[in-house]
Amino acid sequence: MGDTASNVPVDGVAVTAIGVAVIRARETERADRLYDDPLAQAFVDAARAGFAAERWAQLMAVADQFYEGRTVAVRLVDDRVGAALDAGIRQIVLLGAGLDTRAFRLGLPLETVVFEIDLPDVFAFKEPVLDHTDAVPTCVRRVVATDLRHDWRKALLDSGFRVDTPTCWVDEGTLGSLAQEWSQRVVATLTELSAPGSLLGVARFSVDRDSAPAYRELQHLLASGAKQTDSLEIDFDVERWLSGLGWATEFRSWNDTVAPLGRPVTHPDPRVGTIAAVRRPSSQAQQYADQIRRLGVKQMVVSVEAAKATVELLQRAAATQTPKNSVEAELVRRATTTQPPTDFAEKFAVSTEVITDTRGNEWMVHTATARDRAPDRTVVYVHGGGWVMQIADGDWFLCGELIMNAAARVVIPLYPLAPEGTGEFVPDTIADITAQLITDNGAGKVSLIGDSVGATITLSAAQILRDRGVPKPHLTVLIAPTLDIRLTEPELEALDEVDPFLSPAGCRYLNSLYRGGLSATDARVSPMLGNNDHLGRLLLFSGTHDILNCQARKYAALAPTFTGTHLEYHEASQMIHIWVTSPTPEGQIARETIYRALR
Description:
Number of strands: 15
Radius of gyration: 28 Å
GO molecular function, one term: methyltransferase activity
CATH topology of the largest domain: Rossmann fold
Strand content: 15-25%
Domain Alpha/beta hydrolase fold-3: 379-580
Structural class: alpha/beta
CATH architecture of the largest domain: 3-Layer(aba) Sandwich
Protein name: SAM-dependent methyltransferase
Largest sheet: 8 strands, mixed
Enzyme class: transferase
Mean pLDDT: 89
CATH class of the largest domain: Alpha Beta
EC number: 2.1.1.-
């Protein structure tokens, strides 16, 4: 193994990592073990050579006293990580990782990224031992050698941490080993880094641990030769504090938590236990969803009858343009407005041309650029609107953001609306427009972005481009698409309860208008059912309070089977259908992800 004795952390709080490895190795030897850690013994064997005999005996004695409680805690964290994976989380951060081996032993999915944060001294010992064992992680493992009392935020971000995806934060006692000031700073920082839906588990202690013999022994061990040791106490109201930071918390007593494991580790104080916290959406996102509910948008598609009435009203509004109330006025605007808003036209240079498709339909195509600089790239933007409405303010907003933040020329085709505009020719025409732009500018300079049903059209168009042999666009972005217009997923009923925007019944009717004479399984209207190989790089965005989230998850699950297609899936907890274009922090994070990908 080489000389690892000189790297063994024998002083300070880092020595607890070896003690926990001792506990995990002992647990692994048991016939009734709660988990299996085949690497733990390698750490124990390597560490022993670095300790004086008396100090090693002291460490073993402390491990004996903490064994039952700590080994149960390891299993509880394993279960917490498993629950996070079941919830779709694929980003895990281990705070004070120590000699943790979950990246190796839990069978984490390949696309999962585990960030291990701990002191450089810990990794100076850990990495050579792992190298000697030839152990291979089942997921992506990234070492972040830093002190949580320093600028660990930058170190984590530099390691590839994504602020736009939910995270499972794992703490097995590190927060309790820091002074209260530092533990609060750590949690405040991780809160800033946490997308909605992120998970955090924190232990709550309500006893004077300094009076417990085991903790006195541990403090004595840490103090022997230690450079600096902070308090082992968290003595403030953790639940209230986390709630104030935007976390929803749930407390479970230690006894209730460990009872199913059958180990003798009960505690007489019911206030001792664990706090499971979930990052809530921002207040802006909650207000935005509430606004959508108050406007009654969902009532327009809550049933087949409602959707039919909406379409009839749109057609009548487009013909007469004499609205009777504010709702009809908005429908008139969405049915007839094809020009950019005044502020958009004033801010950007906009040109317009009219093209004719193979069916003889005229399309208005806007091209918008910055007035003060040449664009670096071109984006074809396909708007939403349930197949039956024109481009919305949110679409114009995102187009403007693309111009300013991604130095893009944005080409905005306004396709014929259903029932006249159907999947029989709309995706082909989008493909025609994109192919010409690729010929003129090069595939590396052209990307496709679609929102809602526009994303459905966009994915179908990408498949058509591939079938024609056109070079792949630089990037294809799908924002809340309908991927299978049949909408038959069993999860739809539950999602309908939380979605303030869409409803399956009405959407199926609108989808039938766009289908035209095609089968509902035709890739031109249900692109998930088509050939999704060799599409290049895709970004897919979905919120968990969108009925279409179940299809996004299904597509993301299929993605590893695609050849020549790399899908990057971004799911936002409790976000609604149009969250990416919303004026919320969550929407801003998603948009910044798009800008970076375009650049």
